[in-house]
C-alpha cells in the first residue's frame, strides 16, 4: 500500500476522523446527570449571566481553541474548499492536544467573502478561549486576522504567518551566534512574499534586523520602489520595497548573510549560494522540496553553511508545532486578550535557549539515536522534546503578564510545575521529591562517573540544585567527555586511581577480613571497583548517598553496598520498590528486585519500608498484601505468609497506616469490592501500596502494569538500607538518574 492508501485507511477506520468528545466529570448516577444538566446546570448559568468571566471557571472555555478555516490555501493542496480542509483542521486539533493538552473544535466555514468570515468567527467568542486561523489565502488572511484582533477580546493567531516566523526566528538567533555575526548588521534575502514571508520579515525586524537590510523577492523578482510606484505591490508587501533597481533573486542573494525561502522548490542554485557572504545562513523552507536541497547547499562552498528546511529528514526542521500549541497554552492560562509581539519574541527566545540545553535521551531515541547537541546541525529543539511545554509556555505567559495582555496573574514557578504535571502523573510525583531535594541538597556519589549519561545527569543535578554530585572515575576521562558533550560545569571528581585512598582500603579490610578478604584484595577493590569505593565513601560520611547500577547487573551492583553499608538498625531486610503512576492513580509495588521467597517477617518489614517511601512522595499509604486468596478463602503455606504478616503489622504499635490482606489484586484496587463485598476490611479506600508474596510475582506484576496498563515506572527504589543507596536499571536514561538522585537526597535529609 502507498502512503496515500495508508492515510485513507487511517482516517476511515472506525470511528472516522481523528477527534472525539469525552466527558471530564462523573456521569454514572442520576445525581451526576442532574449536576451535569438539568436542573443543576442552572446555577452556573445564572452565575455567568451575572459575571461573564465565570465562564472560565465553570466551562471548558479556558482550554478550548477554535481552529477555523475556509480551505482557501491548504498547504500543498491550494484552494480545496471548506469541506475538503476538515481532515487538516482535525489534524491541527490532534497536535494541540498531543503537545499542549488543549482541546479543539475545528470549524470549517464555507465563506469566501472577508466580512462574512469575520462576522461568523467573531460571533463564536463566547465558545472559545482562543482562535487559530488556518489555511486562508493571502491577502485575505491578513485582513481577517486584523479585523478579528480588533473585534475579539480573546487571542487570534494566524499560524501560517506567525508560526514560521517564530520558529525560524529562534533558529536565526542561534545561527547568528554560531557564525559570530550581529543581527543589526545582517543582510537578509527572502524568496517569497506571501503571508508567511511577510510575517517572518516583520518578526525579524522585531528581533533586531534593520528593516532596510531586508530584500524580498516574489516570482517577478525584487520588490523595489519602482514596482511599488507602479502599483505592483499590495499594502502588506509594499513596506518591504527597497530603493534598489529591479532585479532577480540571484541579484538579491549576492552578498547576503541570510537566505529565507518560503516559495517553491529548486529555485536556488549552488552558484547563488556561493555568491552569499561568508558563513551563510540558509533557511530553505518550501515543502516538500526546499528551494535548494540540503546536500547541494552544504556542498556549495568550503566555509560553514548553516542550513534549515521544513523537512523532518534533515537537521534543523522549522516545524510550526514547536510554536502554536505552547503559545496558545500560555495565552489561555493567563486569559490573554491577544497574542502580541512580546509573546512571540518570548517564544522564539525560549526555544533558542532550550536548544542550548542537554537533550534528553528519550528525544535522541525518538530521532534514531542521532547526536543532538547545540551547533550548526541543532539550532532548535525537536518537536517531540517534552521540555518545550514547560520551558516555552511560561515564557509566553510571563510576556503576556508583563505586556498587559493577561487578565490573570500566575506564579511562574507554580505554573511551570502545573505544566510539567500535564505530561504525566510521574512528573507530578517526582516534582514533590525534587522540590524537597532542592530545599537541602546532599552529596550524592555516582559510582559510574565516567559514563556519559552519569556526567550529563551530574550537570543537571548541579544546575538545578537537586544534589551535590560526586563522580567516581578518572579525572581526565570525565573532563574530556564533559567538554565533548558541551557541558559547562566543574564537577567534583573522586579518582580511585589517583590520590591517597589507603584509609578506604583499611576500612574495607576491617569490615571484611573475617569474610575472607585480604589487605591486598581490599586495596585492589578500592582502586578497581567503583561500587566498593562509593560504598566506603558513603559509610565514612564523605558522601550522603550513592547511585550505581547503570552499567552493572542488579545483583553485582547491590552486593558492595549491602556488604559495606548494610541495612538500617531497625531493618533486617532491604527491598526494591517501583512507583507506578497512572493518569489518576499512584501505586507502590514491592518487592520487585531483592527478596526471592520472603516469609511473614520479611513481608511485614517490606510493607513498613514501602509505606515510609510513599510518604516521602506525599502519599498517605494504604497497604494490601497480595495473594490469590481473599481473607482466608484458600488455606495453604503460600496464603498463610501474607496473612501472618498482616497480623504482625496489626500488632505493631508503630504501624500508623491501614493495612490488610491477604487479598487478591482486584480486591485491593477496586473500591466497590472493598466497601461492598469485604466491608470489614481495614482499608478505607483502594490500596496504593501493593506488597507481592514473592520476588517472581512482584517483578511480573509491576512489568505487566507498566506495559499493558500504560503505567510509568520510577525505580527500583531501594528501601531498608542504613544509608541512602539506589541501584539503577541498566540502560536507564539521564532523567532516571536525576530522579533517583532526588529520591536519594530526600532519603539523606530524613
TrEMBL record:
InterPro entries: Aminoacid_DH-like_N_sf, Malate_Decarboxylase, Malic_N_dom, Malic_N_dom_sf, Malic_NAD-bd, Malic_NAD-bd_bact_type, ME_PTA, NAD(P)-bd_dom_sf
Residues annotated as transmembrane: none
Descriptive protein name: NADP-dependent malic enzyme
CDD domains to which the protein is assigned, alphabetical: NAD_bind_2_malic_enz (cd05311)
Pfam families the record matches: malic, Malic_M, PTA_PTB
Family to which the UniProt record says this protein belongs: In the N-terminal section; belongs to the malic enzymes family.
SUPFAM superfamilies, per the entry: Aminoacid dehydrogenase-like, N-terminal domain (SSF53223), Isocitrate/Isopropylmalate dehydrogenase-like (SSF53659), NAD(P)-binding Rossmann-fold domains (SSF51735)
Gene3D superfamilies linked: 3.40.50.10950, Isocitrate/Isopropylmalate dehydrogenase-like, Malic enzyme, N-terminal domain, NAD(P)-binding Rossmann-like Domain
Keywords tagged on the record: Multifunctional enzyme, Oxidoreductase, Plasmid
Residue ranges of domain Malic enzyme N-terminal in the record: 16-149
Domain of life: Archaea
Keyword Cell membrane listed: no
Compositional bias per record (Polar residues), positions renumbered to this chain: 21-30
Annotated segments matching region Disordered: 1-30
